[in-house]
Amino acid sequence: MYKQTRQHKSAFRFRRFCRAGWAAYSSMHREVTIGQVAVHIADRGLRKSAAVVALSLVLGQGALMAQTDDDRETRTLPEVQVTVAADTLFGSPEPAAVLSASEIRNSSVRTVSDLVALLPAVDMRQRGVGDAQADLSMRGGTFDQMILMINGINVTDAQTGHHNMDLPIDVSMVERVELLSPSQLMSRGVVAYCGAVNIVVNEEYRDRLMAEISGGSYGTANASLLGTCRLGKWTMTAAASYHRSDGYMQNTDYRHGSLFLQAVRHADNNDWHLQLGGQIKDFGSQAFYSTSYPDQFEATRTLVGSVSNVHRWGGMRSETAIYGRLHRDRFELFRDGYAAAPTWYNGHNHHLGSTAGLRSRVVAKVGTGEVLGGVDVRREGIWSNVLGNVDSSLSYPFTKSAARTGVSLFGGYRYARGSWSAQAVALGLYNTQFGPNYGFAADVQYKLTKTNYHFSLSRTYRLPSFTDLYYKSVNQIANPDLNAESNMNAEIGVSVNLSPLSLIFSTYYRSGNGTIDWVRRPGEEVWYSMNHTDLDAVGVNASAVVRMDMATLRAAYSWCHIMQDAGGWISGSALDYLRHKGSLSICVEPVKGLRIKADATYRFREGFYTDADGNILSYGGVLLFGAGAEYQWHKMTLFADGFNLSGRHYRDHGGVPMPGTTFIAGVRLDL
Fold it and tell me: Do you find a cis peptide bond into 397, omega within 30 degrees of 0?
């Protein structure tokens, strides 16, 4: 009775703090218009409300953790490595690649961008470090042709792919990362032109409090706090992080903080998943977009949230998710207080993008197969002083707006017999701005005890971003009459599990029609966005893992070749891609508690860039080395990591040199 009473009191204190946080949050948002709410949340309101809710949950977590071992029941659960697909209700193939919890622990990366870059075939082109900004692509595609998901929720930015990696999560929160091909997403009503990355946040089933602090080169400092607790059938997670740096060269400093809240409830027939996250980011963007005017600066505010439900009855299952995303961006071509703006400069660019969606599907068993049906509704909009059409109803800083709504209906059938399984899905879209479109996917699998063969064929498409449609500058002219681009994808692969060795191999071919690209004529300086380029890509991906008692060895290689017909025009982005990407890493645990890691990565990038002096240079190849070590003593872990140990000079983007050798060291407490 005493233990139960103490737990009830702790749960009451937790709920009281949550109610206080919600009351404070609500009081800041009364009696304002919808537009004011959006701006408030995306800027100052995000900072204040995040602090209130974070304090509430951390204090509530502290109340629970304050109990002694005699006051509560202690359960030690074995580690479970989860490598299933993001979509298991309709028998989707396993992801093209997975970074599991153990693989994440064995790596020496310290940012989400560096973590995602470990996936084979993924190209993470970073401008600066510390998650300041990075462009995600795969298999020779562009940064606008990828989808980014958190816990299966599509949080892709409709303004530009440059903002896709503005995520309110920290590396310490990630349970696994999945790389998904286009055919693996169609049964969820998600159309991915080249593919998608799904980041899955950790779901702890125990009371836990983890704190980490680190620092290193260039005045870098990081701090993060994560807490989880059980309240009945609910698992609550609250995480906060802060990162800052003085920059590795002029105007590359950054400051950003994030807060993420998650609540998960698993029951026999009914599961719920709620998530809410916010991020504030300010960073010097030295020559990020132009070497002619290098003194740039950017400030972004991001808010994402969703509510998902899975219900099971009889031989049927239903999935429903409601989600939203707000992203505010202020871009300064001439950083305030840093560089004097010329008289022709009309002021900074301001954008506020919003996305809201509803996705629902039902899977039912029919005989020996399964039938799928669903609907997806997605609304995308933007308020800006640069993008969209003139809107007299808006006030400073927004003078233009644009919006579109898409409704997708999808359905499919899956059949399995013995070692064979096959499925087919068709999807139809109507968008208020681009009219009708369609996609389909077909998969065939043959599974043996230790080997799995698969073949897939899909048609996908991508709607132009708001930047593709409306952006104009001195040397860039967008096209508001762009059409959606389409793509045919075919892939054959095999995976083999011969413990302690695991192998994965796949080859793909994709053919793009009406590909959106920024192009210019030879001898001219003005770039135009056009549905002009026909682009085909072929490639292979291979990876191997050897797990031994004291060591784990991993190797991966990706090759891609693009065939393009630009009709005499010069391509702006479609031909800057990774032709070769190879990696080798090892993690050794010579004694209990001590883990030593080392890795080598080779990247060869096609394409050219123009430096600050006007010279045209090729990217070429670069070989990078990293190493790290950590020692765990009771509940404390000391760690140190080094990056680019050979001090190589290289660029992921033409105007931005990457830093030389850097070091990070810190301590982590896991209670």
Answer: yes
How does pLDDT run across 260-287, given as a tens digit for each residue?
999 999 988 999 999 999 999 999 999 9
> Per-residue b/e over 276-292, b at no fewer than 16 CB within 10 Å?
bbbbbbbbbbbbbbebe
DSSP string, 361-393: EEEEEETTEEEEEEEEEEEEEEEESSSSEE-TT
Question: How does 360-393 read in b/e, with b if 16+ C-beta sit within 10 Å?
Answer: bbbbeeeeebbbbebebebbbbbbbbbbbeeeee
User: Phi first, then psi: what are they for 187, rounded to 5°?
Assistant: -70, -10
Tokens representing 188 are 């969820």
Q: What is the pLDDT of residues 601-629, one digit of tens each?
A: 999 999 888 788 878 889 999 999 999 99
Residue type, 434: F
Rounded distance, CA 621 to CA 198, Å?
Answer: 28
Q: How many CA atoms lie within 13 A of 151 on its CB side?
A: 27
Other C-beta atoms lying within 10 Å of the C-beta of residue 435: 10
Phi, psi of 594 (to 5 degrees): -105, 125
Tell me whether strands 195-201 and 208-216 are parallel, antiparallel or unpaired: unpaired
**Contact indicator for 73, 230 with CB cutoff of 8 Å:** no
DSSP bridge pairs for 458: 441, 489
DSSP symbols for 223-236: EEEEEEEEETTEEE
**Chain centroid, CA 238 distance in Å:** 19
What is the pairing mode between strands 270-284 and 656-657? unpaired
